[in-house]
Specification:
about 120 residues
């Protein structure tokens, strides 16, 4: 039995991950040009992919198994984004405070995704 959600844009995990992807896009504009086809591209792709996979999961709600599979993909992309953020900090492209802020927000996204994965019936049709 699905809850009151009308679409994926109503999901807090989607809203947070989408906002974080936009923040990463903005901050990555300051990365060195030599990173444009490597770390800059990778962190932009994986951060966007979190929200994209949540949206795809929503469209697959007819099957709890398919829904959960896409949420697991979103969770994996969230972890990849965290690793990229660590690399950005260690390369000197972001500060420790910026890293910490992102990691706290991604931890929240991860917690929400884990709850959705554990309770797919709240979202599936």
């Amino acid at each position: 039995m699905a809850t009151q959600y009308r679409g994926y844009r109503d999901l807090k995990a989607y809203q947070l991950s989408y906002a974080l992807a936009l923040q990463i896009y903005e901050i990555s504009k300051s990365f060195p040009d030599e990173e444009s086809s490597s770390l800059t591209d990778q962190i932009r792709r994986c951060s966007r992919s979190v929200a994209v996979n949540i949206a795809e999961a929503w469209k697959r709600r007819e099957s709890e198994k398919a829904f959960v599979s896409k949420l697991v993909d979103a969770s994996s992309e969230e972890a990849e984004t965290e690793v990229c953020l660590d690399m950005c900090k260690d390369c000197g492209y972001i500060t420790t405070d910026t890293l910490t802020g992102f990691l706290l927000k991604y931890e929240e996204v991860g917690d929400i995704l884990n709850s959705m994965i554990a309770h797919p019936g709240k979202f599936c049709q």
